[in-house]
Please model this.
Amino acid sequence: MNFIERPKQISVGVLALQGAFQEHIHMLQSIPKVSSILPVRTAEQLRSIDALIIPGGESTTIALVAEHSGIWENLKEFVRQKPTWGTCAGMILLANEANNTKKGGQKLLGGLDIKVNRNQFGSQIDSFESLLHIPQITSSPEDPFPAVFIRAPTISTINSLEVEILAKLGHNVDETDASTVVAVKQGHLLATSFHPELTNDNRIHKYFVEHAINYIVSGQNGKKEISLKDGNQNTQKPT
Amino acid sequence: MSENFTVPANLTRIENDKIPKVSHNGVIATFSVKTGLAQNLKNGVIMDVINAEQARIAEEAGAAAVMALERVPADIRKEGGVSRMSDPKMIREIREAVTIPVMAKVRIGHFVEAQILEAIGIDFIDESEVLTPADEQNHINKHNFKIPFVCGAKNLGEALRRISEGAAMMRTKGEAGTGNIVEAVRHMRTINNEIRRASAMSEEELFSYAKELQAPYHLLKETAKLKRLPVVNFSAGGVATPADAALMMQLGCDGVFVGSGIFKSGDPAKRAKAIVQAVTHYDDPKIIAEVSEDLGEAMVGINIDTLQDNQLMAKRGW
Model:
């Protein structure tokens, strides 16, 4: 086996079609392990980055603009191979299935074996802030993460054992149960219902960058190949 | 209350000395939640629609939100009379037709219209000069509402007064219903110019500048430091083409409202889609050229100097 040096820094792109992408960019500027940050609007830009963040915004808008801009297929390919994190709208786009979509349905990039409920909590009046304990990220429940839920989706079904639950809501919100899942990880993909980019807490951004570096290292070593299920297709479990 | 203003997180680059901690647990309607929706709408297009069918066209074109109203500004201009909040039934029908956020307008100072919109669960309220003002001195105290508000401004002083009243988002007023971008440009340039001046001032000068602008000092100081408005700022009033939209984006706004420009044109679906693309790719002239091709008839438009003083909507608001 060849000795592979662990990359000290990676380049991160933020999908810049619609939504709060500058907020992610400002957040990434505080992380030393990020060598460059690129707002991504074209297939060429997508090819030059190690990892991608799909920001909050309107998932229908982002999907339509991506399609009209001719990068939908490139994005689909990217999220199947490289570390990607979706926040809110981004989580919807990374899901294999979604509820409460617009008439005629919504296009999804897919990759995560989950089903999401769009606008789980209702309209803007039901948007809220809440403190979350995320065991892999927050050291203790006394040091919670400030989560901002804006017309947020939640994860209604998990369809694979590969999907790891990172966080649950923790308290009941109207009809939504405390056990509702709001953050998951599967292979190289990460998804959160809430918006870390709308806070001043960069712990999840740091976590994603570390996660991406680990994935890149494991990929180079050939130890672990992570394949993702695409929609209804069955693929083999990684060995 | 207004002294509690906090800048939306990451609207500009973080400064290490200033990391306020959120201490709320499951709390709705915080200022972060209100400004958060505005941040999600950034780099998007918000389109005026008068029925469910238009709302669906807007959604399919990639609108980030729709503004439900009974008459687009061009028709309000033509037909005259008192213009009020829309029928809640019509707003509900639009809400049921789409999944993107739905906004609606109330008259300046008409807090009961705002209470009605809050009760029916609209996502964002526009306290708008396009409707006939209900109060010629006071705007709504927007801190009292759980729903975020967007307001119009022609200059920095007006914008900061609205923010101190609780607006979570601003828009330049332009001159609605004219299809003429000149006023939107004037207002955006005025705000940019005033922010640049403030940013170069010493604290002593800022005190005096606050007096001149009739703006709260603490908000002016924050603006001078950030070198931008301290909330999301869209452009509105006169956007009729993809080039107009890209022009406003290049002048530094965070997104655009399109009122009469889409559904008063020859091919609304195509024009709407083109304006959305132009906002995303605002700094790529090749793409703007492509999407500008063959859009059919643009709305006719009105030259501002042919309007009487009392026909100017931008003058409403104090």
